[in-house]
Write a structure and sequence with these properties.
With 598 residues, the protein is an alpha/beta fold. The chain contains 21 helices and 19 strands. The strands form five sheets. Strands 3, 4, 5, 6, 10, 15 and 16 form a seven-stranded parallel sheet that branches. The chain has a four-stranded antiparallel sheet with strand order 8-7-9-11. It has a three-stranded antiparallel sheet with strand order 12-14-13. A hairpin with a 4-residue loop joins strand 7 and strand 8. Helix 8 packs across helix 12 and helix 13 crosses helix 14. The protein is elongated and about 90 Å long.
Length: 598
């Protein structure tokens, strides 16, 4: 609710029933709307819930590949069909077409850029990386289905002391080490059906050149100077901490810290941006979200900012400081610049990618790296006279069975194992549906199985299977043609497309009993089945951002053309009478709850 425009959320079918907030007031940029609690449908409340991150969006089956970093941007106007591409040009010229008005962080006048953080390659991917990537993918797909041009980037952060130490421990060169681990992240994005348009690697030459250019700009403007540094440093966090920030001798994140003896270092004049940053947070209250994280950032800045060490001499694996080979850049100066290097910075000429896509509409990050994105990054950009991103959103962490994930404990969740066990879309659905976005989440296999069975297999899958099987057996293997006049129940179901909930369609078909009507009133049976198929079509279109492969399988079985699956077709392109259908196949398997949750 804090990432998307008010009207989009207020009108979207899936987000109106925000998970775990069925009868609460949701706030959207200072105003509020009541979320109406639906009537009971023989299911406990938690089984009614649908993902509240976003409601619908576009795209489809498995993507063939994920591009490696290139200065040239790969444009993806459509993922399953020409629907998104055709509607994009229409909707860009008419802001009312999709019902998405301008907001404080998205004026709709530019393409929508959404970014994951670039993932650190000191170890293999875990469920947190999957969570961030899926969340950004849902937003990107939603915007594309809404007719927006989207640029969605991800990547890997491949420099720093942790990487150098990990490579030494493995007995290989750092470049060989990062090539392997970066490949595992690209593979994860492919497996999870992530629709990113670019993948940035900080070891690529173009990124190195972009970061060095930014450094020179900051030097020329007087914001970088040479001095000496000593103090507390966390290798794991790649972060310096003040004495007052330590908790029982550790970093606030719980990581170990070490005292760095005095060494030469270049510094960025961060202290000069204390007031400009506070003015930014005041003028742009949506810049940092959710609100609790915003308050944390403001408190940190108000406590006083010290100049930031931005280079190191104690290790070599990093981008060399221009004109001083004894220093490599501090990892966050290097890493944060990926948002620019992916767009071809420093080329900012008219019609360049920087001109087209920057500033980004949305950076999505984990809460542990919010400080770097909400304090350091805007300060760097202000110093370089570059536009700021519109919003930084920090999501929470995942625990498992109430305990923090730890390699030493052996409870780290491998997202590839989740996909192997449950499938891609079930994994995507659970991670998006189980936690209010921005809050921490707790994972258990039992909870995942229960939710996937209840929402996907029992509700969506059951509705699809029994409806299409009735049509296949009783309507000549085609969408019903001999449809009679609509009753109030029929019209009510179809009118509710703007807030359609799956159990309403299940309620409807249970009440109408088409399996009884086939013996007494075939015209009425055909009408009921047509109305239910039309409800399914709308549900499937709206589900595309969250479970793209499964949603498109439903649309395939309904006989919906690939070029009629964007949001603009929700009202304008009902299912065509007489369209042949094949014998339906189950889409959502049911899973057995293990006796011992692992």
């Amino acid at each position: 609710q804090q990432m998307l425009p008010r009207a989009l959320l207020a009108k979207s079918p899936l987000t109106q029933n925000c998970f775990r907030k069925l009868s609460t007031t949701c706030t959207f940029s200072g105003s509020s709307c009541k979320v109406k609690k639906p009537t009971s449908y023989h299911r406990p409340n938690h089984r009614r819930s649908l993902p509240c991150l976003v409601s619908g969006q576009s795209s489809p089956l498995f993507r063939p590949s994920i591009p490696t970093f290139s200065a040239h941007i790969v444009h993806r106007q459509s993922f399953t069909s020409t629907a998104t591409a055709s509607s994009a040009s229409e909707n860009q010229t008419n802001a009312n077409t999709t019902g998405i008005p301008p907001t404080t962080f998205d004026d709709r006048k530019r393409p929508f850029q959404v970014t994951t953080p670039i993932y650190y390659v000191n170890d293999k991917p875990h469920v947190g990386h999957a969570y961030t990537s899926i969340a950004c993918d849902v937003i990107a797909r939603y915007m594309r289905l809404s007719g927006r041009e989207v640029f969605f980037q991800s990547g890997t952060d491949e420099h720093g002391q942790k990487v150098e130490d990990s490579a030494k421990a493995a007995g290989i060169e750092p470049q060989v080490f990062v090539d392997d681990v970066s490949g595992s992240f690209r593979y994860l994005l492919t497996v999870l059906n992530i629709s990113n348009d670019a993948f940035v690697r900080t070891t690529e030459m173009h990124h190195r050149e972009a970061v060095q250019h930014l450094w020179r700009v900051l030097v020329d403007k007087g914001y970088i100077y040479l001095d000496n540094y000593e103090g507390w440093y966390s290798v794991r966090d790649e972060c310096y901490y003040m004495e007052s920030e330590l908790v029982e001798g550790k970093a606030p994140t719980g990581s170990d810290v070490e005292w760095m003896v005095k060494e030469p270092s270049y510094f960025f004049r961060l202290s000069e941006f204390e007031l400009p940053l506070l003015q930014l947070y005041d003028k742009e209250p949506d810049f940092v979200a959710p609100s609790a994280r915003r308050n944390e950032v403001i408190s940190f800045v108000k406590s006083g900012l010290r100049d930031l060490s931005v280079s190191r001499t104690s290790f070599n694996w990093g981008v060399p400081v221009p004109d001083d080979d004894d220093h490599v850049m501090y990892v966050w100066m290097d890493a944060l610049a990926n948002y620019l290097s992916a767009l071809g910075y420093p080329n900012m000429a008219a019609e360049s990618n920087m001109d087209r896509y920057w500033p980004a509409a949305l950076h999505v990050v984990g809460k542990d790296i919010l400080r770097f994105h909400a304090v350091y990054w805007p300060a760097f950009l202000m110093a370089a006279d570059l536009p700021l991103p519109k919003r930084v959103f920090a999501h929470g962490w995942w625990t498992i069975d109430g305990e923090k994930m730890s390699k030493s404990v052996g409870n780290v969740i491998d997202p590839l194992q989740l996909v192997e066990q449950y499938g891609v879309d079930a994994t995507r659905f659970f991670l998006m549906a189980d936690v209010t976005f921005g809050a921490d989440g707790d994972f258990s296999h039992e909870k995942m199985i229960y939710k996937v069975n209840a929402n996907l297999a029992n509700e969506v899958g059951n509705l699809c299977q029994r409806t299409l099987m009735l049509v296949f057996k009783n309507c000549g293997k085609a969408v019903p043609c001999e449809v009679g006049p609509y009753t109030q129940d029929d019209e009510k179901l179809l009118r509710s497309a703007g807030a359609l909930l799956v159990w309403e369609a299940n309620q409807y078909i249970d009440k109408m009993e088409p399996w009884v009507l086939r013996k007494t009133d075939t015209e009425r049976m055909a009408t009921v089945l047509y109305v239910t198929m039309e409800a399914l079509r709308r549900v499937a279109i709206l589900y595309q951002p969250i479970i793209p492969s499964s949603a498109n399988k439903i649309l395939d079985q309904l006989g919906v053309p690939e070029n009629e699956r964007a949001f603009t077709h929700l009202e304008s392109s009902p299912i065509k009478h007489g369209t042949p259908i094949s014998k339906p196949k189950g889409i959502f398997p049911r899973f057995d709850v293990p006796t011992n949750d692992c």
